[in-house]
Amino acid sequence: MKKVRVSLGKKRSYDIVIGYKIASNYLEKLIKKLGLGNEAAVITNPAIHSIHRNAIKGFLKRLKANAATIKIPDRETSKSNRQVIKIIESIVKVDKGRGLFIIAFGGGVVGDTGGFVASIYKRGVPYIQIPTTLLAQVDSAIGGKVAIDLTSAKNLVGAFYQPRLVISDISILRSLPSRQIRSGLAEIIKYGIIKDKRLFKFLERNIKDILKLKRDPLEYVIYRSSKIKAAYVKADERDTKGIRAQLNFGHTIGHAIEAASRYSKLYSHGEAIAIGMIAASEIAVKMGLLKRPSLERITNLIKKGGLPTTISRGLDIKKIMKAQLYDKKIIHGVNRFILPVRIGKANIYEKIPKRLISEVIKNRCA
Ligand SMILES: NC(=O)c1ccc[n+]([C@@H]2O[C@H](COP(=O)([O-])OP(=O)(O)OC[C@H]3O[C@@H](n4cnc5c(N)ncnc54)[C@H](O)[C@@H]3O)[C@@H](O)[C@H]2O)c1
Ligand SMILES: [Zn+2]
Predict the structure, then answer these.
(1) Ligand 1 pocket, 76 CB below 6 A?
(2) Per-residue pLDDT at 326 exceeds 70
(3) Would 168 disulfide with which of 18, 99, 183, 189, CB 3.0-4.6 Å?
(4) Residue 162 CB less than 6 A away from ligand 1
(5) What whole-number distance in Å separates Cα of residue 182 and Cα of residue 344?
(6) Quick check: 327 pLDDT over 70?
(7) Does the global pTM surpass 0.90?
């Protein structure tokens, strides 16, 4: 079992606990230590519930908390105001006023929605994250960004609201489809490129074993990624200093690819940002910031990770360019890109010429 501390002062600091079978073996001890309350609302979805029903039942029993399990539909559109009100109506039924806390047991959709509900129910109740996807374990469950979507844009209504604990149980990932594993892997590769050349090298050597969910290398990369994310969150909790923004490496063009495919299942988030990371690295090479062999290493690792390197499924380049113009990183009409200068370091650059952006997007279209 490994621990990473997210240090945010006395009141908002918390641990990320990473290990094998910790949800079933240690959860109640960890929760009790925090003294969160006597009533628990577990938010999950039917698919995850049907696989992990016994684990949920087991830890709720041992917690001896009055508990409700609330299932939300398994799709991005669950991050909605309607769903939030439905969840709250279910919570009200179990809340007897003896201290209620929320457990978000699922991927990023459950985590973002559950965390958002925790931030607004009774003006804020404690919550813990038990991320069940690799992406959620290394990214979305850490850092307190909670949000729901509007039809006009994703994550438009939200808050910064930190969990009291994150439990990343590697054994839960065994049931995760391999496409979802690869999607989370893309974020891990991102951490290597922007911050940690040793992590990058480790991935180059061990990626096949990680894809097979071998315990030690998987635990190591989740631990390193959590540590890196925690450091960014500590340095720039509210994403106002241009530090946390570095985590958006690959996401400008990545989000444009997702938006151009209208968030259909055509590209998972990780697949889209894998292409986005290569495109951003190509911009860096063209601007003389990054050496070509580094771009080749990045492209090779992404390939080895079973992620796409080109847009080969008939996406319209004009649509991608247009979507890219609406990226939230564009401030007062000035675009911003996170570009690697070497493996393990990236900086923020503004006013990247449009010509360069469209050139690299065209390059990515097979
Ligand atoms: N808050 C943040 O900082 C942050 C960061 C990145 C992404 N996000 C958000 O996260 C969401 C995406 O999260 P995601 O990639 O985890 O997707 P997801 O929550 O949709 O989960 C992906 C799929 O995996 C299934 N699943 C989850 N755990 C499983 C398990 N252990 N076994 C079998 N199936 C399982 C889910 O039912 C779902 O079908 C998006 O809404 C995105 O906006 C938030
Ligand atoms: Zn991402």
Answers:
(1) yes
(2) no
(3) 18
(4) no
(5) 21
(6) no
(7) yes
Q: Which domain holds residue 117?
A: 2-176
247 and 223 part of one domain: yes
116 alpha carbon, closest ligand: 1
Report the amino acid identity of residue 262: R
Query: What is the phi/psi pair of residue 201, to 5°?
Result: -60, -40
Same domain assignment for residues 35 and 166: yes
Residue 16: what are its φ and ψ, rounded to 5°?
-110, 120
DSSP 56-89: HHHHHHHHT-EEEEEE--SSGGGSSHHHHHHHHH
Q: How far apart are CA 202 and CA 56, in angstroms?
A: 34
Instruction: Compute, in angstroms, the gap from residue 136 CA to the centroid of ligand 1.
Output: 6
Q: Is 108 in the pocket of ligand 1 (CB under 6 A)?
A: yes
Nearest protein Cα to ligand 1, atom 11: 108
72, 43 in Cβ contact below 8 A? yes
* Residue 151: CATH number of its domain: 3.40.50.1970
299 lines ligand 1 (CB under 6 A): no
